[in-house]
Amino acid sequence: MKKTLSAVVVGLLMILCYMAGQRHSSRNATKSTNSRRVLYWVDPMHPDYKSDHPGTAPDCGMALEPIYAELAASSESAAQPVLDGTISIDVAKQQLFGIRVATVEKTSGSVKARLLGRVVPQDTRVYRITAGSEGFVRETFNDSVGEWVKKDQKLATSYIGETLAVASGFLAATAGVPGAVGKDGSRTMPYPGAVNKQGVSSVQGYTDRLRNLGVSDMQIRQMAESHQLPETVDIVAPADGFILARNITPGQHFDRSMEFYRIADLSRVWVLADVFGSEVQDFRPDTIARVTLPDQGKTFSARVSRVLPEVDPATRTLKLRLEVDN
User: Fold this and answer.
1) Which has more confidence, 146 or 48?
2) What is the pTM of this model?
3) Is 45 part of any domain?
4) Surface-to-core class of residue 303, CB atoms within 10 Å of its CB (0-12 exposed, 13-18 middle, 19+ buried)
């Protein structure tokens, strides 16, 4: 008898626990249903069609999609005054099309793109030394291709017959105007007093003619200081850099405009890389990039100069130009 009563009590306890669990689950389900209250159902193909109960769309037979209350409430709370030209999409269509709305922000970021580049001299730092008149080469000095030279370093000497007459006129003009030639061969006024303007103009004219014949400012200054005619015209480097090309030998005759040397200042160089049109937007001017030399394990900071507006017909790419301090 005791065993029977015990079994009945245990059975009643199990029933009561089950009923309590069902009541708790029902309460939670009701709460969840209330938080996800459906306002209406819409046709997924034609959102303008609305129904107050679930079912199928009359035009396509697809199941109607529910529109929940919390989505509409959040959309209404975030409403902003509509400006001219603004496109408005209602809540139903936003939910159906999976549209998410966010605030536009401008932030900094980085884009990783691995490109192969080629180092080239900047064309504005490449100097061509040419002959101002015909003549012949007397001597050359340490002027091999690949040699590094300093500005005003003497590379060779030449004889140009036309320079003798111009140099004679220059010396005569400077004798009448003391201090008319400065360190760079230009006019100066080292002391006050009246100076013949015609004489100064004459000195400037001879100075320009000597420069056109290939005489350097340094040699013009030496002529003004020594008051002597030069036997040869010095061919000097116009800037610090490396000799890229050499086209003269001792005793060689040359004509006007012949190129003697080509010198490049490589203190700042370009790195050219190929990019596709879809990548151009990631390389705006002044964007910072990193250039790596794999064989040397060195990395340099570079700046995007520009993307050249010319498409390679073979590869369908554009040239990206980076500036790097060498």
Assistant:
1) 146
2) 0.59
3) yes
4) middle
